[in-house]
Amino acid sequence: QDNSFEQFIINYCNEKLQQIFIELTLKEEQEEYIREGIEWTHIEYFNNAIICDLIENNQTGILAMLDEECLRPGTVTDDTFLEKLNQVCATHQHFESRMSKCSRFLNDTSLPHSCFRIQHYAGKVMYQVEGFVDKNNDLLYRDLSQAMWKANHSLIKALFPEGNPAKINLKRPPTAGSQFKASVATLMKNLQTKNPNYIRCIKPNDKKAAHIFNEALVCHQIRYLGLLENVRVRRAGYAFRQPYEPCLERYKMLCKQTWPHWRGPARDGVEVLFNELGIPEEEFSFGRSKIFIRNPRTLFKLEDLRKQRLEDLATLIEKIYRGWKCRTRFLLMKKCQIVIASWYRRYA
């Protein structure tokens, strides 16, 4: 219920994770259809980049203004920080404060004067401004670091490397907010070089109890995790896509014209294969380099047919092998019988 600086930076991290989720799933999904020349009805979704910019912008972001308040000379309090926010962010559509002189919130009794509210992707969150400046400073006086570094205990000495007189830096230490922002930036850079898989966990209730399903809580989580947009994009698009070469290699055994070898472009082979199997035209689409399959049941059908075909091929191989083995044994026995008979006739 009471959110301060700690919850603020946690929610900032969640916004950044949601942003990369949008970039790597919803946006990339629709951009791939455009690249492949697939007919496509664009699905609108909310991009939370505007909220991330509200927090992390180097000039007008909340973290930048908090750092500016911590560094400027004179009397600095949480109230002066809130006043600065009200001046810079008053017109931002995702920022709310009763002190911003914005007529929309002047009479909002649910929003105290010492708080501000941000409309996050997951919903509105109100933050108590008290303690923001002190928690962001997070300073340890230089003489304390030096005193701890002089300790005889090796562990304590290792915990305060900044106390080493040889490494004294007269620059002001970075604030907690700027350190967290840099860490989040490093995390985002690392994630963008990967191919992440997402697992969305939904809590059925707040009691951590079995057999209790809170429908309102579940719907809220589905909404703020972005699952609705993701499902809409997936349902409007194609559930499965694969380059032509591996697709043909996997399913070519289902068609006499493509088995065992197809002579020609892989796309033409896939087209012959799908026509032979009688798959409806609305269930698939040909891109520039990939085949797109709309419904998962079509893919399941292909896999079932492949599984059955593999069993048939295994039976055929076994049958041919057994026939060859029996024929070889028979021919050997026949040859032996002829030899025995010829020797018998010679001495008879």
TrEMBL record:
According to its UniProt entry, one GO biological process term is: endocytosis
Q: Which GO terms describe its cellular component?
A: brush border; cytoplasm; microvillus; myosin complex; plasma membrane
Domain (Myosin motor) ranges: 1-307
Q: Which UniProt keywords apply?
A: Actin-binding, ATP-binding, Calmodulin-binding, Motor protein, Myosin, Nucleotide-binding, Repeat
Region span, Actin-binding:
184-206
GO MF term (any one): microfilament motor activity
Gene3D superfamilies referenced in this protein's UniProt entry, alphabetically: 1.20.5.4820, 1.20.58.530, Kinesin motor domain
- Pfam families cross-referenced by the UniProt entry: Myosin_head (PF00063)
Enumerate the PROSITE patterns for this protein.
MYOSIN_MOTOR
Superkingdom of this protein's organism:
Eukaryota
Homology family: Belongs to the TRAFAC class myosin-kinesin ATPase superfamily. Myosin family.
**Which PANTHER family has this protein been placed in?**
MYOSIN, UNCONVENTIONAL MYOSIN-IB
Q: Tell me what this protein is called.
A: MYO1B protein
Q: Which gene encodes it?
A: Myo1b
